[in-house]
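Q: What residues go here?
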């Protein structure tokens, strides 16, 4: 099974998304990357392992960038639209909105579980046991979107506010 890129583009509301390689990385969990293929010889397995390690690194790097961009966008939004909030209130609201639990809720809105690739060990788990996994995958997806927007923070924030942040405060 591969990722249905057109379905992902539709889910995120960006039909003209061009960096589909980033979507593939963001929506392929490491549990899927590390599958065993007994038909490969030792040399092929070593090469395959190097490629798998590289794919996992790319996934993890996307997730951490997405986490940081989400935090920055939320703080910027709170600063802009809630001028009476003090530092403590901003921090408290930001903590809620960038938590793994909230990222999981955002992932559910996009139906990421149906759009992503998971390894067999993860597929068989009920969705409620995949909150961290899907929350992290949402962060990786945010990073892919940020990079698609050529690191344009304003465009990224506008997309995020329109699709998630504004509703979270209503």
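A:
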């Amino acid at each position: 099974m591969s990722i249905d890129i057109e379905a992902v583009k539709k889910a995120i509301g960006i039909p003209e998304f061009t960096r589909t390689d980033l979507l593939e990385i963001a929506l392929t969990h490491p549990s899927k990357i590390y599958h065993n293929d007994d038909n490969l010889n030792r040399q092929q397995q070593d090469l395959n392992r190097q490629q798998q390690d590289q794919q996992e690194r790319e996934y993890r790097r996307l997730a951490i960038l997405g986490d940081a961009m989400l935090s920055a966008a939320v703080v910027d939004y709170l600063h802009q639209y809630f001028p009476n909030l003090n530092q403590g209130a901003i921090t408290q609201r930001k903590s809620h909105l960038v938590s793994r639990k909230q990222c999981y809720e955002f992932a559910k809105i996009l139906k990421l579980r149906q759009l992503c690739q998971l390894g067999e060990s993860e597929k068989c788990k009920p969705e409620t046991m995949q909150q961290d996994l899907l929350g992290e995958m949402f962060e990786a997806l945010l990073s892919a979107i940020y990079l698609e927007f050529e690191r344009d923070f304003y465009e990224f924030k506008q997309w995020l506010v329109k699709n998630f942040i504004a509703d979270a405060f209503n």
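A: Context that may help when evaluating the design: The chain is about 70% helix and 0% strand. The first helix runs from residue 5 to 12.
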